[in-house]
TrEMBL record:
<dbReference type="Pfam" id="PF01496">
    <property type="entry name" value="V_ATPase_I"/>
</dbReference>
<keyword id="KW-0812">Transmembrane</keyword>
<dbReference type="GO" id="GO:0005886">
    <property type="term" value="C:plasma membrane"/>
</dbReference>
<feature type="coiled-coil region">
    <location>
        <begin position="46"/>
        <end position="130"/>
    </location>
</feature>
<dbReference type="InterPro" id="IPR002490">
    <property type="entry name" value="V-ATPase_116kDa_su"/>
</dbReference>
<feature type="transmembrane region" description="Helical">
    <location>
        <begin position="577"/>
        <end position="600"/>
    </location>
</feature>
<comment type="function">
    <text>Essential component of the vacuolar proton pump (V-ATPase), a multimeric enzyme that catalyzes the translocation of protons across the membranes. Required for assembly and activity of the V-ATPase.</text>
</comment>
<keyword id="KW-0813">Transport</keyword>
<feature type="transmembrane region" description="Helical">
    <location>
        <begin position="411"/>
        <end position="435"/>
    </location>
</feature>
<dbReference type="GO" id="GO:0051117">
    <property type="term" value="F:ATPase binding"/>
</dbReference>
<feature type="transmembrane region" description="Helical">
    <location>
        <begin position="456"/>
        <end position="474"/>
    </location>
</feature>
<dbReference type="InterPro" id="IPR026028">
    <property type="entry name" value="V-type_ATPase_116kDa_su_euka"/>
</dbReference>
<dbReference type="GO" id="GO:0046961">
    <property type="term" value="F:proton-transporting ATPase activity, rotational mechanism"/>
</dbReference>
<keyword id="KW-0406">Ion transport</keyword>
<dbReference type="GO" id="GO:0000220">
    <property type="term" value="C:vacuolar proton-transporting V-type ATPase, V0 domain"/>
</dbReference>
<keyword id="KW-0375">Hydrogen ion transport</keyword>
<keyword id="KW-1133">Transmembrane helix</keyword>
Length: 674
């Protein structure tokens, strides 16, 4: 890859293609595999439903629907789908019929299996509910029998009242046998169901219910539901009709229940036999369903790729125009100039694969249209290019900041992070991902969080490496300091700080450079004694703030310098005069001057300097306020007041220079011309 290809986006050209109708599908398939062509839509005013290949796209969408149905059923059963990582070529158009037949057969088979399974599960649920009814109602019938005997006992006739509110003695000749209905209802509906029965039937019913301990499976949703068995005793056909309507409204299921114990026992035996038979049939049905889905799971990923490729090809073909003979398709596309040979080779391969005797033709076209931006990336630069594109894609042939971002982004991250310990953990984790990238790619891990880390493995690797370096400069490892080269601060045994350090290191001391500093700087980074200092925060904040200003202003200067390369490349002298130059002057007069003052202060003043050096922050504020009341006390060099006033005036003049200069000049040219 040349330096120009890294610095700027690829040079693109507009090409026109002439493809034979029978070879167009294969040619587009070959072009799609290399991924170097962007086709233009030559039918922007044609409705999507009126294009030539709309029927083929509908067939592809129908196949995608069937594949989604199969995938849903596979996931429902928890069957792993085989993903070998293969990238199959788009099948020939005639193979669409075979794929459609395969998907149709699988869908019909799965629908039939699901329908049979649902019917069997519904039948199994009914038999299970009936089994619980027969078990639970024995106690209900015994209590009802005792209740009926109590109504006919003359000794307690004055104390008991019949179901209809009459004295049982006065209607002894009219006694009728109690009727009953039994069924099953959702457990959470029991309270309101009981209240409704009481109000509608005016208390002339006797309701008993018992919970079914084991959950039952809903045959439609497959969810577990909890239900209760109930039995209602009543008298009269009118009450029976009301009760059935209430049960229907509450979606309670009613079942026939024999009156005698012998009949109930006989029915229970029959129910158990049918349940065992149903269990056998359900097991066979589930085994058949599982075998079908396992066979489909082995190929569903490959099928999905094939269908998507077919659909993409026909979507692309819909962008083409037909010539007057209806035998040739005309296409226009953008492609990199450096890859024209590969594109021509792909067209030849597609023509040979289709068996066409007429070769496909590609011609370069002259146009005034702005080409699309195409930045060629590899696995290292792709992550950084994604970060840049997230903020904005550069215009055609502009300087691509991604190569510079490969260093500046992780370095600036490390300046903020700055910890050797955590940086080393990041570096080792990313190094593992880099060294094992082929094995991890082959596993086709679907976890979204892992894929995010894996895609940015090179970014994390550099961030970790730079964080180790920045932590070494800050002398910070897990918020602790290392004394690698020996402390350059010597405390005398007679000094009060000496005993504090040696006896109680957890107590902080005030580090004063005067008297305890040897005069030799710590070889790399910050001296470890600052971790014990009371003024540690003030020292570190001052150091890191100055470093941040220097690096931030340098980054801004670098960005403006890149804009100069763009202006010069596109031959825009007005942008250089009215954009680049005032930007540089404005930035220098404000922040560039501050960076210079930081270095001047570092070089001019030392710990023994008298008086104390002036504050740069206060000086910068006074610079813009033209406040120099303290005179020479806050001045670093002679003539500072006049020079700073000059810089502020120049910075203010740069604003109309940038905002109005180009507009006024262009207005002048338009009015008077040249």
């Amino acid at each position: 890859m040349s330096m120009d290809a890294l610095l700027r986006s690829e040079e693109m050209t507009l090409c026109q293609m002439f493809l034979q109708s029978e070879a167009a599908y294969a040619c587009v398939s070959e072009l799609g595999e290399i991924g170097l062509v962007q086709f233009r839509d030559l039918n922007p005013d044609v409705n999507a439903f009126q294009r030539k290949f709309v029927n083929e796209i509908r067939r592809c969408e129908e196949m995608e629907r069937k594949l989604r149905f199969l995938e849903k059923e596979i996931n429902k059963d928890g069957i792993p789908m085989l993903n070998t990582g293969d990238n199959p070529e788009a099948p020939a158009p005639r193979e669409m019929i075979d794929l459609e037949a395969t998907f149709e057969k699988l869908e019909n088979e799965m629908k039939e299996v699901n329908s049979n399974s649902e019917a069997l599960k519904r039948n199994f649920l009914e038999l299970t509910e009936l089994k619980h009814i027969l078990r639970k109602t024995q106690t209900f019938f015994e209590e009802a029998h005792q209740h009926q005997q109590a109504l006919h006992d003359p000794s307690i006739a004055e104390e008991r009242v019949g179901l209809l509110g009459e004295d049982p003695v006065t209607r002894s000749g009219q006694q009728n046998k109690l009727g009953f209905v039994a069924g099953v209802i959702l457990r959470e509906r029991i309270p309101s169901f009981e209240v409704m029965l009481w109000r509608v039937c005016r208390g002339n019913v006797f309701l008993r219910q018992a919970e079914i301990e084991a959950p039952l499976e809903d045959p439609i949703t497959g969810d577990s539901v909890y239900k209760s068995v109930f039995i209602i005793f009543f008298q009269g056909e009118q009450l029976k009709s009301r009760i059935k309507k209430i049960c229907e409204g509450y979606r309670a299921t009613l079942y026939p229940c024999p009156e005698t114990q012998a009949e109930r026992r006989e029915m229970a035996i029959g129910v158990m036999t049918r349940i065992e038979d149903l269990n056998t049939v359900l097991g066979q049905t589930q085994d058949h369903r599982h075998r079908v889905l396992v066979a489909a799971a082995k190929n569903i990923k490959v099928w999905s790729i094939k269908v998507r490729k077919i659909k993409a090809i026909y979507h692309t073909l819909n962008m083409f125009n037909l010539d007057v003979t209806q035998k040739c398709l005309i296409a226009e596309c953008w492609c990199p100039v450096a890859d024209l040979d590969r594109i021509q080779q792909a067209l030849r391969s597609g023509t040979e694969r289709s068996g066409s005797s007429v070769p496909s033709i590609i011609n370069r076209m002259q146009t005034r249209m702005v080409p699309p931006t195409y930045n060629r990336c590899n696995k290292f630069t792709q992550g950084f290019q994604n970060i840049v594109d997230a903020y904005g894609v550069s215009c055609y042939r502009e300087v691509n900041p991604a190569p510079f971002t490969c260093i500046t982004f992780p370095f600036l991250f490390a300046v903020m992070f700055g910890d050797m310990g955590h940086g080393l953990i990041m570096f080792l984790f990313a190094l593992f991902l880099v060294l094992k990238e082929k094995q991890l790619e082959a596993k086709k891990i679907q976890n979204e969080i892992f894929n995010t880390f894996f895609g940015g493995r090179y970014i994390i690797l550099l961030m970790g490496a730079f964080s180790v370096y920045a932590g070494l400069m800050y002398n910070d490892i897990f918020s602790k300091s290392l004394n690698l080269f020996g402390c350059q601060w010597v405390l005398s045994p007679l000094s009060p700080e000496y005993n504090v350090i040696t006896s109680k290191p957890e107590e902080r001391i005030f580090v004063d450079p005067n008297g305890t500093f040897t005069g030799t700087s710590y070889p790399i980074g910050v001296d470890p004694i600052w971790s014990l200092a009371k003024n540690k925060i003030a020292f570190n904040n001052s150091l890191k703030m100055k470093m941040s200003i220097i690096l931030g202003v340098s980054q801004m200067f670098f960005g403006i310098a890149l804009s100069f390369l763009n202006h010069r490349h596109f031959q825009r002298p007005l942008n250089i005069i009215f954009d680049f130059i005032p930007m540089v002057v404005f930035l220098f007069c404000m922040f560039g001057y501050l960076v210079i003052m930081i270095f001047v202060k570092w070089l001019k003043y030392s710990s023994t300097s008298k008086p104390q050096p002036p504050s740069l922050l206060i000086g910068l504020i006074n610079m813009f306020l033209f406040n120099y009341k303290d005179g020479e006390d806050n001045m670093i060099y002679s003539g500072q007041q006049g020079f700073q006033s000059f810089l502020v005036i120049v910075a203010v003049l740069c604003v109309p220079w940038m905002m109005l200069g180009k507009t006024i000049y262009q207005r002048y040219l338009k009015r008077y011309g040249q």
